[in-house]
Amino acid sequence: MSQPLPQLPKPAFVLVPIEAPPEVPTQIAADLRETGIPGGLIGYEYRPLSEPVCLGGIGERGLVAIATSGLFGRIAIDVATGHVVQIPKIESATASHVNRDLDSFNRCAAAVIARFPFYAEDDVERCEEVAEELRDLVSAIDETALAHNGFWETFCDDVAIGDYADWDE
């Protein structure tokens, strides 16, 4: 018999300004300081880092990590494009698209958190319906957000199978 997953606290959306170390490119450092990043997201899909970290490039691109994602992944900003991407593992040579820019990422996170709670634990028939509502929310903010196997698509798929029920109120 498996143990139930621990209940997570109800999320709240807050933007947190982040001071970047000198090696972070000037424009990204200014965006992080002035715009900020979400102070948290639902579950373990996104947890902000206390300080951005410059990562080696994927291909010829440099990345600035701003958060963890899952057990070993990172959420980062692509220095060349300004896109927000997800890297499955720190040493990974691939990145998945998250959002077209930091502002879009922040707005998607705010919309998803505002829609919470998604459903009650005993209301599993609503899971797919809620996931579709979330897909509509994030794609209305950023039409690139639902990239195949991307952060938001995977998050919505997790909602659809009931992974985000059973939260503390």
Overall description:
- This protein is of the alpha+beta class and 169 residues long.
- It has two domains: 15-99, no CATH class; 106-160, no CATH class.
- The protein contains four helices and seven strands.
- The protein has a five-stranded antiparallel beta sheet with strand order 3-4-5-6-7.
- The chain is globular, with a radius of gyration of 16 Å.
- The two termini are 26 Å apart.
Q: What's the arrangement of secondary structure elements?
A:
Layout lengths: L14 E2 L9 H9 L2 E2 L8 E12 L2 E9 L3 E6 L5 E4 L8 E4 L2 H13 L12 H15 L9 H10 L9
Antiparallel strand pairs: 1-2, 3-4, 4-5, 5-6, 6-7
Major β-sheet annotation: 5 strands, antiparallel
Measured distance between first and last alpha carbons: 26 Å
Strand order, sheet with most strands: 3-4-5-6-7
- Nearest-integer average pLDDT: 84
Classification by helices and strands:
alpha+beta
Q: From the alpha carbons, calculate the radius of gyration and give it in angstroms.
A: 16 Å
Helix percent reads 25-40%
Residues in β-strands, percent: 15-25%
Shape: globular
Order of helices and strands: EHEEEEEEHHH
**Unreliable spans:** none
Number of domains: 2
Helix count equals 4
Number of strands: 7
